Amino acid sequence: xxxxxxxxxxxxxxxxxxxxxxxxxGTPLLRxxxxxxxxxxxxxxxxxxxxxxxxxSELGQRGTVGIGTPGAISPTTGYIKNSNSTVLNGMPxxxxxxxxxxxxxxxxxxxNCFALSEAVDGAAAQARVVFGVILGTGVGGGIVVDKxxxxxxxxxxxxxGHSQLPWMADRxxxxxxxxxxxxxxxxxFLSGAGLSRxxxxxxxxxxxxxxxxxASNAGDNKA
Length: 223
Known about the structure:
The protein has helices at 41-59, 93-101, 110-121, 187-190, 192-203, 209-217; strands spanning 7-12, 16-22, 28-35, 64-69, 72-73, 80-81, 105-109, 129-135, 139-145, 148-150. By secondary structure, it is α+β, with helices and mostly antiparallel strands. The radius of gyration is 19 Å and the shape is globular.
């Protein structure tokens, strides 16, 4: 059984890939979550394709597919750029996934998707201008005005994570080099990876951001 009404949304994150299927009226039908393969573009494509196939098999329907991804499709090259999941950068993600799934897909920056969702019917539904912030594996942002996403000429409007942390004092942590080529970007401090790096500098121990939070709750002063 196939239905054009079902919509499948995919949140492609640095640590997890989460899929949701929605009915024609927006009712959630199924959620499915899997880890994101580390530093392997081909495996990421396969995991996404497998996740879509799993959802469609479970529900007995075929759906349209939209993906929220870190970074953005460059209007110049058509390839992903500015993704904290660096293995995606320079790759034709939309075309490769479309080929894998055998259908057209839609793709947009994850922070833009989040900001638009909140602006349409979420916490910012009553606001004309919305700035949505993502703090996770990376640091992202999206701008929505009058329910329309503002992407900018270079598709990076609202992306504040690669501004350098201003007014740093000598007592503050050493500026870390960012994958974008600059040093001291906000993302190198506020992201999950940034927290792990700073904890490792202070303790010599590798922990994830979640593990650092647990250690802090347990009384670890360095955490």
